[in-house]
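FAQ
Q: What does a multi-component entry look like?
A: The components come first, one per line:
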Amino acid sequence: MPELTFTVDSALLSELGEKLVETAHIALVELVKNAYDADATQTTVKIIPNPVLEPHIAQNRSGLKVVGMRAGPEIHVIDNGSGMTFSDVEKYWMRIATTHKQDVKVSPRYGRPRTGEKGIGRFSCRRLGTELRLITTAAVNRHFEQTEVLFEWLKFKPGKEISKVTCTGERKRLNHATPGTTLIIRGSPLDEWRKQGYDFLKRQLAVLTANRGRKRLHFEEDPGFRVSLEAPGFNEEITDLRESLLKAGWGDLNLQVKAGGIVTCTLNAMHIKEKTITHPQRFPALASVSAKIGIMPTYSRDEMRKTDVISKTSLQEIVDDWGGVYIRYKGFRVYPYGEPGNDWLNIDRDRGLRKTALAPILQPFAARLRGVNPQRALLSLLSSKSYIGDVEIGERAASSFEPKASREGFVGEAGIGQLREVVRFAIDWSTIYREYTRGLALKEAAQEARKELEIQLGEDVESKEVVSTALRVVETEVRNLATRLPTTERQQVLRSLRTATEAIAKHDAANREELRHLQLVASTSTLLLIFSHEVKSLLSWFEQVRISLDRVQGRVNKSESDRLADVISEFGETKERLLQLLSMTSLISVNRKAEADRLALHPRLKRAIRCFELITTSYRIDINIDEVSESLKVGPILEAELFSVLLNLLSNAIKSVIAAGGERKVMIAAEQRGSHAVINIRDTGVGLKERHYEAVFNPFLSDPEDLLYRGLDSRLNPEDEYIVGTGSGLGLSIVREILSYRGGSVHFVKPSKGWKADIEVVLP
Amino acid sequence: MSISRKIFWIDDDGRRKRTADDIGADFVNVNEEDLGETVDGLLKRPQPSLIILDHILDKTAGTNPFFKKGSTIAEALKEKWSTCPVVGITNADLDTIDLRTQRAYDELFAFSHFREYIETIGAIRRGFATIARFRARGPKDLLSLLKPPGDEIDRLMLALPEDLKNSFRDPSVASNLYTWVEKLVARPGFLYDSLWAATLTGLNEKGFEKVVALFDKAIYKGVFSVSDNPRWWSSRLTEIVYKRSPPESGEMSWHVGRKLPGIKDEHYSCCYKCKEEYPEIVAYLDAESDERRPMHLRCTNLDPRFKRELYFEDMRMMLG
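Then the predicted structure of the entire assembly, as tokens:
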């Protein structure tokens, strides 16, 4: 049988260049990936515009010959990787899609997972220009071998076999040299470089520069990968792309511990520019420590300062693979700080514990910023991986740290404990600003929208008039358009327009009124906190008095001792009741947990009822919860939300039975019905007509027939007015909002015999 | 070093002097005083048997922020008087004080509950004094301070933290041992509180109260024990209950516990979840709650707030 042999046509080179490597930017990324895979630690990329525009015949994408300008930039890619030997260049350089990279999944020296999987990166050179000068140096048996080859791609003409084309080259043996590869690409027929493509390149390279060093089993320690980028055509020279990367996210933190242990933190971040804080304490043992940390939330592009360096996708990749704060001791990385799974700053631990309150040291600062709740600010803390950077322990602080021989951590906790304290201080401080700017950003967006509206209308628009003015604009425009419609359609459109605009206007008015009330209610929360603090002092005094009475009790006769025991006991009971109320106020006003959970209803119900103990005892109100299953769980719901629902509904029932007079009974039943828990709160109060069942859930309409407050006026002791007698008119609407958010509902149902009202809550 | 019987109470709130007097402590008022100098002066005196220290010392004369926290002073005092227990007190919420700061003290209490801790403070004082006098020749010697049942010693040795095993002569041994005993007391395993003890014996807490005297020999009387919040060695509880009423085939402690003298139907424990009898364990109501009830193992699942630990009971919560 005759044997057949096949050859490869030179056209394949341009085919691969054009088809596999779609754009010049992808081509250049592939070349840098090759450097990365060759264990380079530093790569320089230069994109130098060609000042000489020569007429030139080139092929366009459809393969047609066109006369263009030899205008493409000259590209240099210079790396300090392992380089190639003459034989490597000869065997692999021109072999298309060699299996070399597929066979070896990691780089030989540092064990880096390969980034340029397909083995076509070198053909990207063809994509970038008509001429390539390859200079590569590799270590070979205690000396170096340098190979220089000039590839003139135009020689590889369609119809000519690749093996028939020769390239001039040179092979040198050197005693002293630095391994690495330099690619100089010239003669690109067209200038494909635009800002968009250049930014794409930066984003891709930024992912590679996120490698700040890692130790991999059986390999030398990887010192990381840096890229410098020169692109005069874009007026840009980036000496270290990693620096740009760290400044591309929401913010970047710089921390310096000066001589004497003064810790200064500087934050550059979106909307706030530069802010500085000094730690109130000094840490002399940390003098010369510094840190640079990028703050990189991955949730949205809105929190990125430089979208030319990072994108949502690339940032996620960076955070997943290289997130965390590393520690370097005199320049050397100390493991495992910042490695995946290492949480040396206790960030993930605090997030896991749902810790929301700031450390006391930062609370006064947070309290000064509008819209920041010191008890909740840590909710904005990102995962430890979203903080990317290095802490450098300089020469002066080195004596406070003793790395273990294996460089796996430090001996003792003292130094690292202080380091954690200052770095966490800086991170928590930045978190306060992030919380602050989130509110600021929303306001800014609203302001911008208002300004645009002003420009369009050519008149000033007050903040509170934005919705009504915008509605007027929409109304006018639609009316104008409607004049072109036939009469019937026009009338239909105008009717719909009127209904829609009225709905928006009314809703806006209601929202503004609700907001005004909520602002008033919120303003009392500060007073509540001050009051809580005062109550705490009072409780401490109670405790002191009890201890003194205990002492006196042992020195008096029995009858006096018994009397004192009663007093001590009364003090104890009052203290317990106050403590319970105090814990409830902090639970409601300072929500510590951010994640909803399944909660046992019975104990919460008992606790909520105890809050009204004073009033239920003095008005002899019987609250029966016998029909609430002890094992019933509801939710997922926040504990604070569940208490808010229960306290509002109980308060309404209690007010109602006081206002009605006569038999004062409240009965609560709760059971599981299918996948939902159903809670009924029945009372013998003033009742509610069926036609108001829905209306009472509207804000400020809780007593449509004025039966409740009229009844309370005549039956409630004025001293008790503050407990149940007044209402914000928002209670039921808040209850409905909470339940609806949690997938539940609330409505009045027709009460059974013996009851005047029955409100039913359905919860998952 | 000579150790006096004195207790020092260092505070910048003069109103607390009365309480210091009530418990027999020497009150050191540092209000508008230079804290550094005061502490320096104190350190020249003989080591006291205990120090009570206010955590927030913001009303002293100095401006140095280092001397505004009791925890900093605690570290300085411990450096000189390494075997002296230091108890912090505060009006701040304990969960707003980070763990590292809390660890500067041997114990940190909320002042609003001080009365409840008086006995514990006494136990700390006695315990530290005992340990200072005690010359442990090995970790087993340390365990003898716990006065454990003989058959528990091997398991306790396995559960003993490394720092206590290796540094039983270190001046910090009393602090470390106190921390470990606190854990033994807090987490059921070797020791049970009254609810766990009642459930183990098939009773509710009221029922257990009726027969509690029978279990006197099971009460933990080792170092740092307090009588107003007792614990029982779990192995002793079972041993006593089986000795009084030998179990028949298949019977567990919660079956035979019901045969103890004076026990009636109303004293039997029942599962909070399914209302059936013979709950075997105590579980939390949910992952947000600190209320616990007797339950069947099958009516619960693991509580995500706690990790599982060898030699200790799993912390569980009600299903649902």
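Q: Is there any commentary attached?
A: Sometimes. For this entry: The interface with chain A takes residues 15-16, 18-19, 22-23, 65-66, 91-93, 95-98, 100, 111-115, 118, 272-274, 285-289, 291, 299, 318, 320 of chain B (CB under 8 Å).
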